Amino acid sequence: MSIRARLDLVRKRITQTCLKIGRSPEDVQLIAVTKTVGVDRVIEAVEEGIKIAGENKIQEALPKMEELEKKGYSLEWHFIGKLQRNKARFAVGRFSLIHSVDSVGLAEEISRQAEKKRVLQSILMEVNLSGEISKEGFSPEEALLAMERMSQLKWLKVMGLMTIPPFSLNPEGSRLFFKSLKTLGKRMAGRLERSFEVYSMGMSNDFEVAIEEGATHVRIGRALFGEREP
Fold first, then answer.
1. How many H-runs (helices) and E-runs (strands) does the chain carry?
2. Has this prediction a pTM greater than 0.85?
3. Rounded distance, CA 99 to CA 173, Å?
4. 166 — phi, psi (to 5°)?
């Protein structure tokens, strides 16, 4: 299938899911995950209407961003992978939203780098709801105290929460984790007397379930670009 056909199908599925549960499709942001995707194919996606791209690695993202800029393409970039503290300086100010803040130490480093650049950096807290050792993020028990500390950092704007559930061939296997993230977010918002705008959850295999449980941003790679090249 062409990228156009894949994108049309993903948009149709997003729209149908939203209408089924009484949400506006405008409330769900589609992030095209461009990990390992070449610049030409990213350009093709942009020309078909993709507005937001998500990258997992700084060393892959920056050259790709620069090449697209040189070619005159405008795209909003989100960082969605594991961000090491010593690379935070490369992400701050280049990515409009960092989804994967998994420690207070990383948040503090992002804030320091943002102060140096005089930018307000938007971030999400990554929550590990499954307890898997292979997954990054705060445990639900750690999350509230960590959010209190992160929310005090002057140069950060904490927009909401992100999670990655255990992979399941059955999309319903992710529902409990998405529901739990939304519940946690509401509890934290009540304690902090504020609201969270962003719930980043759902990928190619389970984004419809994520939307049903309140996702505002879905991260779609394979359903748009096909299987990743090695």
1. 9, 8
2. yes
3. 22
4. -60, 145
Here the tokens at position 47 are 């020309």
Condensed to tens digits (0 to 9), the pLDDT of residues 166-193 reads: 988 899 999 999 999 999 999 999 999 8
* Token pair of 198 as six digits: 């962003």
- Each residue's pLDDT tens digit, 11-52: 999 999 999 999 999 999 999 999 999 999 999 999 999 999
Q: Distance between CA atoms of 78 and 166, rounded to whole angstroms?
A: 22
Classify the C-alpha dihedral 134-140-146-148 as positive or negative. positive
**Under 8 Å CB-to-CB from 207, ≥6 apart: which residues?**
13, 14, 215, 218, 219, 220, 223
> The tokens of 125 are what?
């807290």
Check: CB of residue 90 under 8 Å from CB of residue 113: no
